[in-house]
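fyi for ur records
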Amino acid sequence: METLPARSSVLIVEDDDSTARFLEAFLTRNGFHASTCENGREGFLKLITGNYHVVMLDLLMPGIDGFDVLRTVRETYFPFMKRIIVLTGASEMLYRGPIYENEIFARLGKPADPAQMIDMATRCAIDAGGVFPGRHRVPKLRPSAAAPSRFEH
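which gave:
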């Protein structure tokens, strides 16, 4: 396995509290500086304003979900796509829309194999190389056409 760059940071966007806490503890024990958020809106804002090497993104969340985050990042902040590792159950892939597998760093099934998760996160951090696309103006998140408009603010 490759060596994790010093001070590599990972953002975990996961609405299930026990899963988020497990991922945060596991990644921290394996050398990452991990932080969590519980929804897509908060995750997107942290992604574009923070300095994260890796983003682990759940797809199915209430409100702005992982599909909305992927679509918005793809449309407005494309360099961030290669920092995203999508965490998904098999049924989630059929749920709402594309996950742009050729544009994200990786997709891991739930439950993820711990060794594979660390390997993917390490390789993603190495690819990031400590270079961040920069801080950006925060756009208004738009839910997909399939989502109710109540998610607008």
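Residues 38 and 56 are 12 Å apart (CA to CA). thats all i got for now
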